[in-house]
Structures are given as C-alpha cells and as structure tokens.
Specification:
By secondary structure, this protein is of the alpha+beta class. The chain has 3 helices and 5 strands; from the N terminus they run H-E-E-E-E-E-H-H. It has one domain: Zincin-like. A 3-stranded mixed β-sheet has the order 1-5-4, with helices on one face.
C-alpha cells in the first residue's frame, strides 16, 4: 500500500472517531479512558450504566479501529432518529449491524 493512501485511510478513521465522539457527547454518554483488568489481560472496554448514567469505558491502549467499534456499538444502542447526525456518519452507522 502506498504511503499517501495509508495517510488518507488514517485520516478517515480519525475523522470517523471524532464524529462518533461528538455523537456520544450529544447522547450524554460519558467517555472514560481507563484500562480494565480482565483475568490475565485487559478488556478493550464497553458501555455500561453507573448510577443511572451511561458510561463508555475505553482502554486507552486500544487501537483506533477498536475505539471506533466500541463507540459504534455504544451509540447504536440509542434511538438516533431524532438526533442530528452528519450524513457521512449516519450512512456509516446505517451500514453497521449491531444487536444489543
């Protein structure tokens, strides 16, 4: 793969992650970057409820792809029909299957 294409793909992933972070904020999802010890390793994280509030915990060492997956799974648990979402992000989310 050529370096220009690699940089372009990285930028696209960074933009996608940024849009997902903005959407999580709109949905009042608190995001915490914390390592989660699980047995002999670490979990990438996930969405949970703490005292009635949604919290998305993400391992700070997770790859950008893993962070995108975690944000995508989290926001798809919510009814997004009444929320303004940038067209590119809405298209991305509509093409990702997820069942809680």
């Amino acid at each position: 793969m050529n370096p220009g294409k690699t940089r372009e793909m990285k930028k696209e992933k960074e933009n996608l992650l940024e849009m997902l972070q903005e959407l999580a904020q709109k949905l009042s999802i608190e995001v915490r970057l914390e390592p989660i010890k699980m047995g002999s390793g670490y979990s990438e994280g996930g969405l949970c409820r703490v005292k009635g509030k949604y919290v998305l915990i993400i391992n700070p060492n997770a790859s950008i792809e893993e962070k995108i997956r975690l944000f995508t799974e989290a926001v798809k648990r919510f009814d997004l029909s009444g929320v303004y979402i940038k067209p590119a992000l809405r298209s991305y989310l509509e093409n990702r299957s997820f069942s809680p």
